[in-house]
Amino acid sequence: MIMKLFRMLGRSIRDAFKSVIRNFSLSLASISCITITLIIVAIAIIASFNVNNFTEEIEKDLTIVIFLENDVNEEEIADVRQELKKMSNVDKITFKSKQEVKEEMQSESEVFNTVLNEWEDDESPLKDTFQVKVKEIEQIKNTAEKIEKFDNVSVVRYGEGMVDQMISAFTSIKNVTYAVVIALILVTIFLIINTIKLTISARRREIGIMRLVGASNFTIKMPFIIEGMILGLLGSIIPVLFTTYGYLAFYRHFDGYLFSELIRLIQPEPFIYTTSLIIIGIGILVGMIGSASAVKKYLKI
Amino acid sequence: MDLIKIKNVEKKYKNGVTAIYDLNLSIEKGAFIFVIGGSGSGKSTLIKMLYREEKPTKGQIIVGGLNVAKLRNKKVYKLRRKLGIVFQDYRLLPKLTVYENVAFAMEVIGAKKNEIRINVLKALEEVGLKNKVHNYPDQLSGGEQQRVAIARAIVNNPKLLLCDEPTGNLDPEKSMEIMKVLDDINKTRGTTIIMATHDKDIVNAMKKQVITLKDGHLVNFKQKGTYDNEAV
């Protein structure tokens, strides 16, 4: 039974290749269309994965910084910490005392070092701070406003404005690319339907005889579906090369960062391999869907 | 044992023409039957219903245990594997050799290669074309092409062989050759043969069972019948 299936499969693959070669010009048109689509899909995948990657990175870095009043004592600091712990959106709390802030700043620059040394501890303008990481980045504004109302809290800061805008801009870019990709995939499927339709009409006689001598519908349809898959596979060769070498060159050219240290690109390995696999998968799937619907429409058997 | 049972079958085409009225028939295994009648008598429709190219509008058709009238499109291949079909226009694939044309019928149902080889050569020997296996259909005469079609029809060793005017395009001499081949198949393989024809000479020479149809009605079913001009 399994041997029989393999024999039929071998026959189908042979027929499919023959047909691709026989209708070469139309096959080439389909393959080119798949190629163009998949290159754009590849760019979309690379872009959206990278955007996701660095928005996540940025989100990880986003913290609420809480500056306490100048004259807080140990007990009041503990109270604030207690209050923070009670909030549902608060994930991690780190405390930095005046002294720690001062040391940190001094180590960062020589200018700060000299300036800060001129103040005595009790007249220092520096404040004790809490740094809070939140669970839901969308709720950061809300949380920050609540914290501001606590006793002994002087100022609350978080990465307002700029980061929000950046994230929303990237989201709209992502949505546009998705729309373009879907439109292109539909055009490609349409082209594949036409290619397979031509193959079917060229083989009408053969199909009729197959029916007469007792070939099952599945056997008759298989070569056409495999033909679609072959078109998809051939169409994904250039996009895969494009992804692999293109991204590698891109990554090396920018040294792994885009515009600033903030936007870090995804490491090429294994990213290019997974992307290539996705591209091949989409190519084969699009070819299969196209030919399956052509077979369904034009092979009413 | 009856190979075919036809009960109260009626066939009405979508354009309103009724091709068969209330037909009842039983056909035994191993029989050789001519179906005769003028054009529009319904003989082609009867043959087409037997291989489920057409479905009856009423009644029941049982072929080798399969209820043909109720057979779903997806399952038609099960019926087709039980029978061989020969047409007036041969229906060979022009780009395949004689051997490949016959082998095609076995390949598409997934037979093994050596099994295909044995059966194809045997079938081609039976129709007398063993020396032309590597020729293409257009290098053969009409009679030879029809013999290739017969070889293809019997290569899967079916119980039933349906022939729709197989000699319609051939001269009397070639026609008799075809009839001899069919008769041999009927005798040596025991294949049941049903052949629609309007060739008087053939029917009279063969002295087989004859079903006569006229305007969609069964006129008679005779043993060792002849071509009855009046009935037709």
Task: Outline the structure in words.
Chain A is an alpha+beta fold and about 300 residues long. Chain A folds into two domains: about 1-60 and about 165-300, no CATH class; about 65-160, Alpha-Beta Plaits (2-Layer Sandwich), CATH 3.30.70.3040. Chain A is about 70% helix and about 10% strand. In chain A, the strands form two sheets. Chain A has a four-stranded antiparallel β-sheet with strand order 2-3-1-4. In chain A, strands 5-6 form a two-stranded antiparallel sheet. In chain A, α10 (about 235-255) packs antiparallel against α11 (about 270-300). The model of chain A has no long low-confidence stretch (mean pLDDT about 80). Chain B has a domain at about 90-155. In chain B, the strands form two sheets. Chain B has a six-stranded mixed β-sheet, sandwiched between helices. The relative contact order of chain B is 0.19. In chain B, α3 packs across α4, α3 packs parallel to α5 (about 140-155) and α5 (about 140-155) packs parallel to α6.
Compile the SSE list and pairings.
The complex is a heterodimer of chains A (301) and B (232).
Chain A: H1 2-22, H2 24-61, E1 64-68, H3 74-86, E2 90-96, H4 98-108, H5 110-117, E3 129-134, H6 140-148, E4 153-157, H7 162-202, H8 204-212, H9 217-235, H10 237-253, E5 257-258, E6 263-264, H11 268-298
Antiparallel strand pairs in A: 1-3, 1-4, 2-3, 5-6
Chain B: E1 2-12, E2 18-28, E3 32-36, H1 43-50, E4 58-63, E5 66-67, H2 76-80, E6 83-87, H3 98-107, H4 113-126, H5 142-154, E7 160-164, H6 172-188, E8 192-196, H7 200-206, E9 209-214, E10 217-222
Helix pairs in contact in B: 3-4, 3-5, 4-5, 5-6
